[in-house]
Specification:
single chain, 593 residues, alpha/beta, Glutamine Phosphoribosylpyrophosphate, subunit 1, domain 1, Rossmann fold, eight-stranded antiparallel sheet, glutamine-fructose-6-phosphate transaminase (isomerizing) activity, aminotransferase, repeat, carbohydrate derivative binding
Amino acid sequence: MCGIVGCILKTDKAAPVLLDCVQRLEYRGYDSVGIATYSSSGINIRKDKGKIDEVSEELHLEELPGEVGIGHVRWATHGLPTRENAHPHTDCEGKIAVVHNGIIENYKELKDQLVSEGHQFLSQTDTEVIAHLIEKYHKEGFNLEGAINKAISKLHGSYAFAVISTDEPNKIMGVRKESPLILGLGDDEYFLASDAPAILQHTRRIIYLADHETFTMDEDGITVKDRNGQIVDKKVETIKWTPEMAQKGGYSHFMLKEIHEQPEAVKNTLSEVSDIENIVSQFPHFKRITFVACGTSYHASLVGKYLFEALLGLPTDVVLASEFEFSEGAIDPDSLVIFISQSGETADTLKALKIANKKAKTLAIVNVLGSTATREADYVIFTRAGPEIGVAATKTYISQLTCIYLLAACMGKNRELLDELQQIPDYMKTVLLLEEDIKEMAAKYKDAQDFFFIGRGFSYPTAMEGALKLKEITYIHGEGYAAGELKHGPLALIDDDVPVVAVVPPGKSHDRTLSNVEEVKARGARVIGLGSEDDQVLSYEASDMIKFPSQIRELISPLLYVVPLQLLSYHMSVQRGIDPDKPKNLAKCVTVE
């Protein structure tokens, strides 16, 4: 996830406005920033890695000349955070500049073709192929609009980009496909941005682009066309959000916004499959897998254990990073040690990684390109969740799970699972429609002092993650247990004051978990059941029921059944008067032991 902006002003310089706009999008990315403006001297670009204020102080971004320009704040996806990889990117002659949000899935293929034709690339990004494709078709005789349309026809993936060119000055053109892009209308001034907060200080009159729509913006106005080149009469809407509300996309909190961003996060992470297949092709024969992680990432690793043992028959361990030094004796050259960390900077995880590197092959699953873990592991898989502002992990957890499923499917050459994973974003959108029911449910249980979450097999880590979310943001004591362990102690704590959340998808664990539901009901507990929409027994036994599409089988249930538990904790937190984005005593990245 990155942020793009652009503007055409009547008399004022564009650069100070573009700088203000990207500063308001820094939550979308913060590892590099750049601005390009057009003036009589041509296209002027200043960019570098680092936070916006730091780069601006060094390069004086606001001093660029011209009334037309584009800008970008980056969350690295292809290529490390460097000056060369920062946007905007240009063609060979510096006559075309591009800023881009999204992922070009076939960029390697396109880059190889363009290099063979003589194009010279300066970065490792996927974005640069857009500039060179436009250059290629422009030289073949197409005008800028035609060259952009030809380039679009070659791109696979999700993207929103904006282009300026010296051959058609005082104009910005671009397109949206599965990545956010809005246009803004001021008083004879025009704007574009990934999100509304970037331009709310300048206009509240917004045009929302649909997928495959292109736009041309010049001093005379804005023209929008559909994928067939027909002009579209777009409705201009007036936003009533405050700038802070807009930064959160209209959601009350970043956590809620990030829960709703999970279908997009999964979709973006699924695009990593070709890179994962390439990594797997380099693997020697491993006899054992060990996952190492902390907190939420530990729960994702537990799902990995069940998955790797069920699908690959590989003995798999899961070790807390802080405890790894006591288990290193079991690691040998035939082991693959997988480290999972949202930031790639977690102190305990990095300490364990250094130990493992001396004895085994290591793989890091991380969300931050260029982080320490990515430099020290033998192999790296990137989650594509984008920046996560809320302290409690939601979309990063789902993206980690997606990577684990992709890795298992690729190692096992399981085409059926790979195809099934492609359906997860749509299933997730369906699950998110349950929010209003979950909000009402939260009101019923928000005053409880203790909760138990139970599940078996693949549902056990989901129960643990549900309990963790409850503890983190509601300050209610919650415990996740393997359902079969209830009778070995926890059952003594169950009574009518302790609600129990039972994760009961259809499958191997279903009937025995239902027996555990009966046990806690017999002790007076109210049960919140999570199960299939056609599970009549669970629906009858549970006090409240969260129903899922019946096609969701047990194997993939961890990717979906956790979402209502995130929402349940979120709404209970809000109803208890707590800020879920900033739970007490917790921080986003633990970089100390």
